[in-house]
Every structure is written in structure tokens, then in C-alpha cells.
Amino acid sequence: MKILQVATHKRVTRGGAIQMVRLARALQGRGHQVTLVFNKGSQEGEQGITQLRKEGFTVALFPMDGLNLHAMLSFRRFVTEGGFHVIHAHRDPALRFVFFSLMGLDVPLVAQRGTTYRPRRLIRWIMKSPRVFWIAAVAYAVKETLVGSEVPPDKIRVVYLDRPLLYLQTLDYEERYGHSIDLKTWGFAAGPLVKDKESFRGTLIEALDHPETYSDVRRKMAAHLFYNPGHATQKAVDVIRELLDE
Predict the structure, then answer these.
(1) Could you give the CA distance from residue 146 to residue 157 in angstroms, rounded to a whole number?
(2) Distance, CA of 46 to CA of 59 (rounded, Å)
């Protein structure tokens, strides 16, 4: 399969760009032909681009800041000539650029969202479009925000990686924290407890093989620890606006 990955980052070393590169390497390892598009800017002479090309990736750069009709037409021609089977747009700006550049072309689009603030009206409209057939949400809280923004839930797939968590019981752990917090709830609930070095290896292997064992506990714990999960940014914005109006 020929896959096009698009990010508006100007540096390969940015967090979202790193995620895209890692995904591209994994897809390439499975036999797919992956092309990467970044925002044209200070990264053009960056070592990271050279390294990606050495690894066999086709890397293209387009100016994606603002409304650049020339860049949009160039990108459209690039996609038409490339014959891609699917395009994965990372972040809202990349989705907007890809969507409007390819108006009228029948190329399936995959969107990705990693933040829990409510998407802008234009992005919500794009996500509802039949041209966007799949939306990757990096957490369940992200999906909740999108569904609350009237994005069809059947389009959204949570690509949550359930990671194992181990607790190491130290001699002074209960002495230091036992009087201030409920250890059974907050201290040792979200993963297996390693009581000594002899049990470490077996406990670690068990956690790696079955990371889902404590998933429900971790989600419930997050709901207790974090205020209003999935809506914190919107709450902060509302409070700031209230203060400004006073």
C-alpha cells in the first residue's frame, strides 16, 4: 500500500513529527511504501530529513502556513502523480491543508487528534465529511471530546497503547506515605507489586504479556486524579474569559 503521511511541523525533532516518523518506520517494516510530507521551513537542511531519505523514505516539503494557493496546487499535483491509497494527516492544520488541497479528488483521508480541547467549527465540519473515513484518537478522553463535538463516533478509533505499570515496594514506602494517602487506592492499585528482587522478572513478564489486567483500574484512577478529564482546557478558557469580563 502507498501511504502518505502529512505533518505541519517544521522540525523532525518535534513530538508530533517524531510520532509520525516512528509510525512510518513501522509501516515500512511491514512492507508498505511510505512518503512523508513536512512543512517547508527551517528544517529543509536539517539532518533528520537526510536521515529519513537514507532510510528509503521519499520526503517532500510544502509551505503549509496560512492560505498558500500555490503550495496547495503543488501538493495536489504531488498527490495525483503519487497515486497514494490513503493519506494520514497529523494535527488539525495538516488536515485542513490536505482537505482543501484535494477537493474533488477521491483519496481516503485519515485524521489524527491528540488533544482534548474542542476542535474548531471548520475542523468539526471536515471531520464529518465522507472524505475523512477514519479518525485516530490517542486517548479515550480525546474521543469523548470529539463525540461531544458531534463528530460521528463510528469514525473514531482510539489508538491507546495500554502500558504495563509495576510498583516496587521499598522499605520506607509505607512509612513515608502510609499516613498521608490511601495506599490501596493510590499506591498499589494500578499494577502488580514487586516485593523482592526474586519476583521482579516473573512479575515484569506477566505485566508485559497482559497489560490490560489493570486497565480499568488505571482509567478510574485517572478520573479521580484529574479534574474533569477531557475538558480541562475549555474550563480554563471559560474561567479566563469570566475574569476578563469582570
Answers:
(1) 11
(2) 12
**Domain layout of the chain by residue ranges:** 2-158, 167-225
User: 57: closest CA among 94, 12, 99, 14?
Assistant: 12
38-89 residue pLDDT tens: 988 755 456 678 888 888 899 999 998 878 899 999 999 999 999 999 999 9
Q: What is the pLDDT of residues 203-218, one digit of tens each?
A: 888 877 777 777 777 7
Which residue type occupies 175? E
C-alpha cell at 236: 480554563
Instruction: Report whether CATH 3.40.50.2000 matches the domain 2-158.
Output: yes
By the 10 Å C-beta count (0-12 exposed, 13-18 middle, 19+ buried), 21 is classed as: buried
Integer Cα distance of 218 and 230 in angstroms: 16
Q: Give dist(CA 165, CA 107) in Å, integer.
A: 40
In this predicted model, what pLDDT tens digit does every residue of 175-198 receive, in sequence order?
Answer: 665 555 555 555 567 778 787 888
Residue whose C-alpha cell is 472524505: 131
Rg (CA), the chain: 22
